[in-house]
Structures are given as C-alpha cells and as structure tokens.
Fold Putative aliphatic sulfonates-binding protein.
Amino acid sequence: MLSQRFQSRILNIFLRFFQNFQQRKIRIFSLLFAVGIGLVLFVSACSSGTNQQATTTPTEQATSTPNQSPAVSSNTVRIGFQKAGTILSALKTRGDLEKALAASGASVTWSEFPSGPPMLEAINSGSIDFGYTGEAPPIFAQAAGTPLVYVAYDPWSTKAEAILVHKDSPIKTVADLKGKKVAFAKGSNTNYLVVKALEKAGLQYTDIQAVTLQPADGRAAFEGKNVDAWAIWDPYLALAEKATGARALTDATGLAPNRGYYLAAKSFVDAHADTLKIVLDEVKKTSDWAKNNPSEVAKFLAPALGIDAAVLEVAEKRRDYGVLTITDEVIAKQQEIADAFYKIKLIPKQINVKDIVWRN
C-alpha cells in the first residue's frame, strides 16, 4: 500500500497537470478562435473588395479591350506620330497645336510609334485619338474591326517609297526577286508596293520570302545583307541610298498611289468634331509651311531624326503635301488596295472603305 503522503503527492501532480492542460486548451482554443476571426474578416474584406471591383471592371475593360473605345477626355487630344512623319513631327516640335488648343481649354499629348500598324493598334486599344499613316495600315485595321475614321488625306508621292537592293546585287529587276528575302513592315504602305510590283512582274506574293520588319530592324537587316531587298519609304529610303549606295528596283510610280491618311478614333470624331477641326487646321498650316520650305523642314527635323539635313532635303523635295478632303476617287483607290489584300488573304475579310470615311 502507498503511504497517504505519497498518494497526496501523486494527486497534486495530476491536479497540476490537469490545470496546465486546461490552460493550454484555453490558450490553443483562443489562438484558433483569433485565427478564425481573422480569416473571416480577411475573406469578408476580399469579398467586399471583389464586389467593389466588379462594379468598376466593365469600365476598365472598356478602356483596354480592343474594338471598344473608352470615354474620350474632353480636354486632351492624344496624338500618335512617327518620328519620320514630317508634318506631325514638325507640328509637335513647333508647338503650334498646343497654342491653338489652349484657346479652347484643351491640351495635347504625343506618343511616338515606329510605323503605322502599331499606331492603329493604339487607336484600337483606346490609347490615342489621332494619327497619320500610309495607305495600307488603315485597311488592315478596318479588317480587324478597329473603330477608326478617315478624316483627311495627304498626296505624298509615288517617288517617296521604293524597293531597294544592294549596289552590288545581281538582282536587276523585280522578277529577279523570286525566292529572295524581301524585308518590309507588315501592313505598311510598302507592303502594298511589294504586292503590286510582284504582280506586275508576273510573280505571286508567295514567290518571295517575306521578312516583316519595322524600319530600324529592316535597315539593320539590309545593311548587314541578311535580306536581299528592302521596301521602304522616305526619309529612310533617302538615307539608305545615301549611306549604302542602294539601288531602287522600282518606286511606286504606276503601282501604288502612296497616299498618307489622317485617321481618328471614331469615339473622338463623334464626341469632339470641333476639336478635330482645330487639329486638322493646324496640321494644314504646318503642311503648307513644309511644302514651301523643304530646306527649312530638313534643318528643323534633322536633330530629332538624327539624319543629316541634306538627306532629309532629298526626301522633302520628292514628296507632295496637303490636308485634303477624301473624295470618291481616293476611296476607290483605297478599295482597290483592300481588295488586293483580301485576294491574297492578307486580310481575313472584305471591307468597304467608304463605311469609315468622315463626311464633315
């Protein structure tokens, strides 16, 4: 038999153990309870945030989803330009548009693009309101469902784009391009020049190895002789001729109109036609100045473009200028380009150019 004293000691040990165990249970339960409350609050907050986000998501999606233009700012015109695009580059540098818009309480922002297609992608995404490209990009954009509008055109020049080969190239005619690598910016005006030049030479578009590159990459590929030919526009054309002695197989004469187009987001045209007219008026003033002062334009743009003024002057003197109303004849020529692209499956569906022409 255990002594009473020993039994008492054993009993005390069990009692302390039980008390400690109960205290631990309480602490553990309290901890679990606190964690549970925290999780409930967190989930509740997340749910609240999700519900709040759900009320704003449609608007945010409308801003970023292609083919849906966002609400147009009433006091800011967002313009896309190409550094090599004479008129808008000059307009930006001169600051005349800012002054004209200020009188109506509006302002302007500028975004630079390497060529027309990415600029029109920006219109599609709702990032810009207005821009200028060659004749082919708006056709690709319309076929893709971009909500844009032709608002004016620029006659430019058939001499201002060409298909170049190296000065020592054995390629003498467009027909000699069969099986060769030809670089150009996909969806650009020179894309159409290549199509028409091949057609005239009795070749199919599939007879060449098309290498689609933006101007800077195209120049590097051409100068590095990684491609056999390069279809390009001024002033890159004039620069390549001067820097490398490149030969032109053909320019656009008799092949493509090589017009430029001023384009705007449909939402901007619908909401701010008066502001658009101010923009076009200032563009025309700059165009008139450029037409009468090719040497001044060249000197003015040389620092921004990093191209010698003498080279730019060559480009300026072989182009035309204007901010002209789009006529039925102009529409018909654009339709010819669209039909040609559809025929060779460069665009997925037939389009009607006249459907997106601004009738101001």
About this structure: Confidence is low (pLDDT under 50) at residues 1-73. The chain has two domains: 76-156+259-356, 159-251.
